Amino acid sequence: xxxxxxxxxxxxxxxxxxxxxxxxxxxxxxxxxxxxxxxxxxxxxxxxxxxxxxxxxxxxxxxxxxxxxxxxxxxxxxxxxxxxxxxxxxxxxxxxxxxxxxxxxxxxxxxxxxxxxxxxxxxxxxxxxxxxxxxxxxxxxxxxxxxxx
Length: 149
Fold this sequence. Notes:
By secondary structure, the chain is an alpha+beta fold.
C-alpha cells in the first residue's frame, strides 16, 4: 500500500467534506481554499485528511480523519507529524486541538489537556471553539518551541 500525502487543492473540498461527514467531524467552517490541509491518497483516491489553521503564533489542528478501511496504518500520524513540523518551521509557539473522542490518540504527539480559559483569544474566537464543538469537548495543546527564561 503506497500512500501519497500532498497539499489539498480547493477543488477537492467536496471530497474532504464527504470524508469528514463520514467521520462525524465538522465541515461547516472549513476554509474555502483548504490552505494548510493535507490529503492522503492511495492510487489517487482520498483516504485521509488533516488540517492546520494558523492564527499568528498559534495554530489549530483540525479535521484529522482516515476512512475506516485505512485506519491503523499510521496515515493520520504521518499527516499530523507533517503539519506539526510545518507549524514549527513557521515559528508557531503552540498548536491546539478540540476533540470529543480522540484525546488519548493525540497524547502520543505531545498534546496535553488544558483548561478552556487558558486558550488564546484567537483560538477562542474560532467557530469550532465558540460554538460548533460542545463545551464538554477536550481542548489540548502542544508547545512547539522551548521558552527561555
